[in-house]
Amino acid sequence: MPVIEVSFEDLQSLVGLALPRDVEGLNEVLSYVKGEVEILEGNALSLEIKDGNRPDLWNVEGIARELRGALGVEEGLIRYSVKGFSGVRINVDPGLEGIRPYIAGSVVRGAHLTNDVIRELMHLQDKLDQTYGRKRRRISIGLYNFGLITPPLNYSVVSPEEVRFVPLGGLKEMNLREILGTHPKGIEFGHIVKKHERWPILLDSRDKVLSFPPIINSNDLGRITEDVKDVFVEVTGTAYQTVLNALSIVTLSLADRGEGIFDAEVRYPYGETR
After folding, report:
1. Does the predicted TM-score (pTM) go above 0.70?
2. H or E, element range at 203
3. Nearest residue to 6 via CA among 39, 53, 50, 51
4. Residues 86-113: what's their mean pLDDT?
5. According to DSSP H, which parts of the chain are helical?
6. CA 251 from chain center: how many Å?
């Protein structure tokens, strides 16, 4: 079952109600989300969520959302609305159909990010990638500084030596084959793309690399810090509905800390625009 590491004060703030500071009392509250305290030390809170079928509860925002209803802070379903079009159109290369055919995206504007929030988002991303995404085979997620991106985006395929960029956490440019051979994420997940002659790449209109799905983001556009206010969320994968579900989970988590959701348009060459 997923173990979630959160900030107690962050959870309490998102719930909007004082929560018990003792393990027994907190466990009683967390029973509404089938959760149990693993560690409670000061502000550090580690929870085990015993419902493996609710990936929307694998993050502090989802837990708080559920608790607000269970504890009477809010009533009824929370209604999220899309405020408009983000300006992001994603053109999909037909060569992806037999490799990693689906992509979805959104933009959350005015996100209030701290180091703790970013760490929790990375934990959520990793949990979804590893479990719901079947270790990135079905889906993988990317978060980007939208302020650095110039739409439209091109989700394409390239030869392993064709494109070079600095991978997230790296110091020098590498081509895709070099990333698979030397970067920790390339070594861990490279088997997903190695069987194909051409590999996925996500570029903006200036040919700046967002990511090499499902391996690694770029260290430029794909690095999230406290200074980032507008976040582009992207999910690629092999199962269309799973891609959409993962996008919804991450987008709504950011929306609970932001000012508005804006959608993106995907143009597929092997089916209707979605």
Report:
1. yes
2. strand 199-203
3. 39
4. 97
5. 8-15, 23-30, 60-70, 115-127, 176-182, 184-189, 191-194, 240-255
6. 8
